UniProtKB/TrEMBL annotation:
The keyword Metal-binding does not apply. GO terms for biological process: carbohydrate transport. Keywords: Signal. This is Carbohydrate porin. Belongs to the OprB family. GO terms for molecular function: porin activity. Residues 1-24 form the signal peptide. One of its GO terms (cellular component) is membrane. It comes from the Bacteria. InterPro entries: Carb-sel_porin_OprB, OprB_Porin, OprB_sf.
Length: 482
């Protein structure tokens, strides 16, 4: 399938009527492998996975290979992303940077393959290339793109999924990426900035950023649909995909360049989420009003691993003290809670795809273990509103990450002892304006503009010794489905 119209994902599909919900949950969408920049169909109880259509892929039916594979239960997909980013003002170093990614995924439907009902085997791999624009030119906490990651050619996910009780219950076991199902906002995922996918409060507060793109971790995910409008999900995975220490001079991809380390040496990550579908128009105006569907979610995570204190060392002194051992005090266990709201707020008429949608996501984390204890993102997406461009989407979104009390105190300690310079950390805000044009059924172009203030949380430019200036970033994303 093309990227356009695809990534409702298991999150939306699981909110449908029981039969459709679980089948969509068992068979991931093609675009579940993409971390950002994916347009989403609106939440609705009648959503079903679109049928396979060779016209939405560059290679079509691949000279008859795709229909033959499909008859045997095999679906092989490939996607390519090319991005170019430019710093036009502020930041660290003006100029342009390229990054790119090619992904391949194979899905085996066990019913079509050998008569085993309601089962699916999935394996995927990534080839990530280019340089980090955020690290080298911008200096921000939030990467400008989900594809701004360490270069590697790596295994991504390997899992087996099985449905039970008419697919009302769905279980996956294997090496899992949790950010396609948990903590995700369907509308936020349209934007390119990485924080609108897997947010700063997880990517910075967990080991290796947790089981999120481009990493996965060994574990189990359970999804249950007791009612057509309600989904309950839970997962238990290893909490450290690359197996390294919390603080390390080595990059995550250096520790596990191939994605085959399968670490089990730290702690366990427990995640739970409840999702509820509702029709706001019917609730407010009656059954004859144009449907305004939405999904409302509440969830949380607990990590049983050991986490370093941002301020105190192992002897109870201040880490900023020149006499400190430099070894942080360790705390056992860590937690975070979150809410996510995706809601359509306007529709042209009954059945129309011309819509306006809003999203809000907020997180709260333990203050004694984490650098970032609160985070908020919000924004609007506008679907099919431009004349003559029925498949295009544009949107505007904002996000902010707030330092915890101990992290701010540690910075003030460092300034008092003279072991570091600069002002105490402050919130980093970013706003993104993006437009996605469906050039063909298999090619999307997405020009993008982002503005950052409080860049790096008030970090200083190593060349000037002054705080990094507010930055203007422009970019272009090209996504091709083969």
């Amino acid at each position: 399938m093309s990227v356009a119209g695809w990534r409702a994902g298991v999150v939306i599909a699981a909110l449908m009527a029981a039969g459709n919900a679980a089948r969509a949950a068992s068979h991931p969408l093609v675009t579940d492998i993409l971390p950002s920049g994916v347009p989403l169909p609106v939440p609705a109880p009648t959503f079903v996975l679109p049928p396979d259509d060779a016209g939405t892929e560059l290679l079509g039916d691949a000279w008859g290979a795709r229909p033959w594979l499909d008859r045997h239960g095999v679906r092989l997909t490939a996607q390519d992303v090319e991005e170019l980013w430019g710093l036009t003002g502020g930041g660290l170093n003006r100029g342009a940077t390229y990054d790119g990614m090619t992904a391949m995924a194979l899905l085996l439907d066990t019913n079509a393959a050998f008569g085993w009902h309601d089962g699916a085997f999935n394996i995927s791999a990534l080839q990530i290339r280019g340089r980090s624009f955020t690290d080298e030119r911008l200096g921000a906490l939030n990467p400008v793109s989900g594809y701004d990651a360490g270069r590697s050619t790596r295994l991504f996910e390997v899992w087996y999924g099985q449905g039970f009780f008419g697919d009302r219950l769905d279980i996956r076991v294997g090496s899992l990426d949790l950010d396609t199902e948990f903590l995700v906002s369907q509308n936020a995922s349209f934007f390119l900035n990485a924080s609108f996918g897997w947010p700063l409060s997880t990517s910075s507060n967990l080991y290796s950023g947790g089981p999120s793109w481009p990493y996965s971790a060994l574990g189990t995910r359970v999804k249950w649909s007791p009612l057509s409008a309600l989904v309950l999900m839970g997962a238990v995975t290893d909490d450290n995909p690359t197996g390294g220490p919390f603080y390390s001079s080595d990059g995550d991809t250096q520790r596990d360049a191939s994605g085959t380390r399968f670490s089990l040496g730290n702690g366990a990550l427990f995640v739970g989420e409840a999702q509820y579908w509702l029709d706001l128009a019917r609730n407010l105006s009656g059954k004859d009003a144009p449907a305004l569907p939405g999904t409302w979610k509440i969830g949380g995570l607990f990590d049983s691993g050991a986490f370093p204190d941002p301020r105190y060392d192992a002897r109870g002194g201040l880490l900023a003290d020149p006499d400190s051992s430099g070894d942080p005090r360790e705390h056992r266990g860590n937690w975070m809670t979150y809410v996510v709201i995706d809601q359509m707020i306007w529709r042209e008429k009954v059945g129309s795809d011309k819509t306006i949608n809003v999203f809000v996501r907020a997180t709260a984390s333990n203050a004694t273990r984490n650098r970032f204890t609160r985070e908020v993102q919000a924004g609007f997406t506008f679907d099919e509103l431009l004349p003559g461009r029925p498949d295009d989407t544009f949107g505007i979104a904002w996000g902010v990450g707030l330092y915890g009390r101990r992290a701010a105190q540690a910075a003030r300690d460092a300034a008092r002892f003279g072991t570091a310079t600069g002002a105490p950390p402050r919130p980093e805000h970013h706003i993104e304006l993006t437009y996605q044009a469906a050039v063909t059924h298999w090619l999307n172009l997405q020009p993008d503009v982002q503005y950052f203030w409080g860049v790096g949380g008030g970090a200083t430019d190593g060349d000037t010794g002054r705080p990094i200036r507010n930055a203007v970033v422009t970019g272009l994303n090209m996504t091709t489905t083969f």
